[in-house]
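Note to self: user wants both folds in one dump. Writing first protein now.
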Amino acid sequence: MQNHVHHAHLFASDLDATLKFYREMFGAEILADLNMAGARNVFMAVGQGRLHFYDQPPRDEGKGAIHHLGIQTDDLGRLVAHMKAKGFQFRKEISDFGFWKYVMVQAPDNVLLELFQIIPEKLPGGNLQKLAKISAL
């Protein structure tokens, strides 16, 4: 039996702005846009991952159980430059651990995103070599 995480389900206070953000920043594709459970629900593909948005403002201004969503890219520098050109601000520069580079940024509704890039040829040996398995690219 194989199992995988299918999607993260997020509230959106301005669903159209949220959809635009994920389409413009990450090339997301809308897979379904329908009315379910009394509200508009949108499933999006971001590469091999999936996000599900519910057209309602977050019920809790805090983060609840969600710390961040991880979005893998094959060119972190280019993605960050693209987002900066669109007006997004980053609190820190890209952190570089050789085999793993990442930076955090806020998405709509204060969803914290980790944008990251794995550099397979720089993966150390031993147990850390298993990190190659988490790469979706």
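First done. Writing the second protein, which came from a different request thread.
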Amino acid sequence: MPPIGLSAKNTLTTADAKRVEQAFNEKLASVGADAVELPSKQTAKSPVAARANERRRASAIDKTALTLPVPRRIRDREHVKAVAKQPCLVCGRRPADAHHLRIAQSPALGRKVSDEFTVPLCRGHHREAHRCGDEAAWWRKTGIDPGAAARVLWLKSHPVPLSAASAESAHAAGRHMGSIRRNEANLAG
């Protein structure tokens, strides 16, 4: 068989796409599920709108009910911007980058951890954290618990309705953030 050029690779005609769609609907119906009407034409006006549509559909699936739930990877630009406005956890410098804690979730191909696991690091410490190879050891060396700091920052931008029990834990988290700030002052001084 002669090699196929890259321009011809991964092409699908409209007629072939309709046949694939029809075969999919027949297979879905035979499995016992209701046949799903798939749109025959793309209705998205731009690639950005298509990605937004895809995100909306993807977020509608609740995978927490699975036997082995998939870790959620929340994206919240406003939270990431708010984290970047905070001083560096290690030295207190500004501006800071929002560092995603790779140790907080299991790795996924080409995906960052959830935005709820972000902490502010100055550019120098951010690069150092990425270059060290063992992020957990790097954080142990600094003497800072980044998970607790990330949780405090997440709760600042996503407050939970407080009950009596959760009010105490939020107060304790605030005390912990205060000790982190004292550590920052000691490291900077």
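Dump finished. Worth passing along: The radius of gyration is 23 Å.
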